[in-house]
């Protein structure tokens, strides 16, 4: 039996996120909502010197420290939606899963600073379990 891969599309929203110029056409609740991969891809394309890239790194680090249980800045968690077909469905009580998706997406789009990749072993272990030898 062939299995069809379906990428999970998560939308995160919070007033301190940068404004998404496409939020209306994508039917997001408000201008500070981004689909995770879209956010990190846009930041990567904008370049390391852009403010969008700096914001993407901030979101990566926040997610990293939240996943490790060491986040202390006090910002509320994101408002999160999963895109099912074209409908946004609220995601509740799955913070760890959301954080894992944010971190993986940031890594896939080279948002993670090179010097930090050496220290991400603990995050990989939390997401994927112990590494096989």
Please give a structural write-up.
- There is one protein chain.
- The chain is α+β, with helices and mostly antiparallel strands and 133 residues long.
- It has one domain (10-69, 76-128).
- The protein has helices at 36-46, 51-67, 95-108, 114-117, 121-128, and strands at residues 10-13, 33-35, 79-84, 87-90.
- Strands 2-1-3-4 form a 4-stranded antiparallel beta sheet.
- Strand 3 and strand 4 form a beta hairpin.
- The two termini are 30 Å apart.
- The model is unreliable at 1-6 (pLDDT under 50).
Secondary-structure map:
Layout: E1 10-13, E2 33-35, H1 36-46, H2 51-67, E3 79-84, E4 87-90, H3 95-108, H4 114-117, H5 121-128
> Given the C-alpha coordinates, what overall shape results?
globular
Largest sheet: 4 strands, antiparallel
The helix tally amounts to 5
- Termini, distance in Å? 30 Å
The helix-and-strand class reads alpha+beta
What percentage of amino acids are in beta strands?
5-15%
Report Rg.
15 Å
What is the average of the pLDDT values?
A: 85
Strand order across the largest sheet: 2-1-3-4
């Amino acid at each position: 039996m062939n299995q069809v891969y379906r990428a999970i599309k998560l939308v995160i929203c919070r007033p301190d996120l940068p404004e998404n110029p496409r939020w209306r056409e994508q039917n997001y609740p408000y201008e500070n909502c981004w689909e995770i991969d879209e956010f990190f891809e846009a930041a990567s394309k904008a370049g390391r010197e852009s403010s969008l890239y700096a914001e993407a790194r901030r979101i990566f680090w926040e997610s990293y420290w939240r996943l490790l249980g060491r986040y202390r800045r006090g910002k509320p968690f994101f408002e999160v939606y999963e895109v099912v077909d074209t409908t946004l469905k609220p995601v509740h009580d799955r913070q760890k899963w959301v954080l894992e998706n944010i971190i993986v997406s940031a890594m896939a789009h080279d948002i993670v600073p090179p010097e930090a990749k050496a220290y991400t072993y603990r995050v990989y272990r939390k997401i994927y379990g112990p590494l096989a030898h």
